[in-house]
Amino acid sequence: MADSMAQAAPQDGETRRDFLNLVTASFAAVGVGALAWPFISSMNPARDVLALASTEIDLKPIATGSAVTVMWRGKPVFVRNRTAQEIQAARQAPMSELKDPQADQARVKKDNWLVLVGVCTHLGCVPLGQKPTDPRGDYGGWFCPCHGSHYDTSGRIRKGPAPANLAVPDYTFTSDTQIRVG
């Protein structure tokens, strides 16, 4: 009988050891998870960044022929209320003369409203042309003085080292006098 007890005791010890190992591993896993959670959570976008995911722009104060610059996701967005002459000049540009051919109608949702990300596609400068006193380049749109890129009244590259047109952000008209960018 003593022999049978001696054999049972090691099995009981092994079971107890297995249980302790399992509990220790479980506590370690929960501890690692508790420590990792704040670190992983810190990689999510902050509330202020999420708030900038879209921005509303009131178009009422923008007179015909003028423009405003708003910030969206840390970048300037140009909103221009184009004149009939600017629209006509953009539509009459021969596609064969464009470095990055794109029709004016494909870049706007309403003829007179042009919405662009105001970052030069060459080296990321901010082109001039938003203020009435700014030089607008050879094509009446925007001019990047850093390396001499000229954009037309549709934001298309016409002259200079920039490889592509000014980008058109994702935007929608929420009413006749307001747009949402983003």
Radius of gyration, taken over Cα atoms and rounded to an integer in Å: 31 Å
Specify the CATH architecture of the largest domain: 3-layer Sandwich
Characterize the quaternary organization of these chains. single chain
Structural class: alpha+beta
Give the total of beta strands.
9
Distance between the ends:
81 Å
In total, the number of domains comes to 2
Q: In percent terms, what proportion of residues is strand? A: 15-25%
Task: Find the CATH topology of the largest domain.
Answer: Rieske Iron-sulfur Protein
CATH class group of the largest domain: Mainly Beta
Based on Cα principal axes, name the global outline.
elongated
**Residues in helix, %:** 25-40%
Q: What is the residue-averaged pLDDT?
A: 84
Strand order of the largest sheet: 1-9-8
Family: Belongs to the Rieske iron-sulfur protein family.
Organism: Paracraurococcus ruber
EC number: 7.1.1.8
Cofactor: [2Fe-2S] cluster
Helices and strands, with pairings:
Blueprint: H1 2-41, H2 47-51, E1 55-58, E2 67-72, E3 75-81, H3 84-92, H4 104-107, E4 113-117, E5 140-144, E6 149-152, E7 157-159, E8 171-175, E9 178-181
Antiparallel strand pairs: 1-9, 2-3, 3-4, 5-6, 6-7, 8-9
Structure commentary:
The protein is an alpha+beta fold and 182 residues long. The protein folds into two domains: 1-44; 49-181, Rieske [2Fe-2S] iron-sulphur domain (Rieske Iron-sulfur Protein). 32% of the residues lie in helices and 24% in strands. The protein is built from four helices and nine strands. The strands form three sheets. It has a three-stranded antiparallel beta sheet with strand order 1-9-8, with no helix packed on it. The chain has a three-stranded antiparallel beta sheet with strand order 2-3-4, with no helix packed on it. β8 (171-175) and β9 (178-181) form a beta hairpin. The longest helix is centred in the N-terminal third of the chain and has 40 residues, at 2-41. The protein is elongated and about 95 Å long.
